[in-house]
Each structure stands twice: as C-alpha cells, then as structure tokens.
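Data deposition worksheet. Section B asks for the primary sequence of the deposited chain exactly as it was used as input, without tags or linkers unless they were present during the calculation. Section C holds the resulting structure in token form. Section D is free text for depositor observations; keep each observation to a single sentence. Incomplete worksheets are returned to the depositor.
Section A, Depositor: J.P.
Section B:
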Amino acid sequence: MKKWFLVGAFILLCNMFFSVCLAMEANKDSAIDWEISVKEKLTPEELEAMRWTEVFQNELAQYFFEVKSIQPDSADKDQIHVTVKAIYKDKAVINNLNEYYRKDLEEEDIIACSEMQMIFQLHKRMYAVKNLKLYSSKRVLIVEQTKDVSFVPVPVKTFADTMYEFVRKCVQN
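Section C:
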C-alpha cells in the first residue's frame, strides 16, 4: 500500500512540475519587464541629438561630429576616422540638391543633411571623405556614396581645419 501511495505521489509531483514548466514557457513572451527609473525615457529623436556634438558653423551648414566615432585606423595609426554630419542652411545649396535628387524625394520633402566618414592623416595635415550619406528632412536616406580614398590638404579656417585640430587634440590626450 505504501508503494502505491509513493508511486501516486511521484506521478502527481511530476505532473505539477511539467504543468508549471509549460505555464512558464507560455508566459515567457508576455512577462512584464520591470524598469525603475526617476528619469523619463528619451525619445529616438532625443537620443539621435545626443549622439552629435556641434563643432563648426558657417553660411553653408552647421557641422557636428560623433565623439564615439573617433577611431585610429587599424593599419596606420596616423590616420584617424571620424563620422561628421552637416545640416544645410544655405537655401541655394538646398534648392540645387533638391533639383538634382527630385526623383528620389517624396512630395513636400527636401534635402536636409549629410553624414560623412572622414579620414585625417595627422602628420601630413591631409584629409579624405570616404563615405557620404545624404538624408531628407523626413530622415530618408536619399543617396549613399563610397569613394576611393584620395587625401587632399586641409584648407585653413574651414570645417575640415576645425575638425582636424579637434581630432589631433583628442589623439594627443
């Protein structure tokens, strides 16, 4: 009699264990994720704005760079890569870009900004633009161009000059 009682209890325990496992598996996707914070969650737009730091401004555009993107080249430590962004202000430039890319733009959309992957050669005071992405005001990628790296001298008192000096100081520290 004791044997049958133990067998029954064992079967009952196994049944309960498998029922709990099945219930946990079913609720796995609908489990509540708890997050405690006094700060409000940032919107995607706010996160994108925090990613960029303003570095230069002229009549053509307002220029930003991404701090986390400043990286030395794996093959040549004298070459530093950085991602920069230009938000266009000059109406003539915006109109020219809009006309050129009209077929790629949605109705009532305009060219707003570009992101570039720049490479600086610190000891030679040269730079190159490796990659260019052009975005509309609705944040739609209009065109992406990857160029052959061709270094040119950094012109004085320009965005490239300001960026070169900033990158050089970052690497020194």
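Section D:
The chain has a mean pLDDT of 83.
The CA atoms of residues 94 and 110 lie 8 Å apart.
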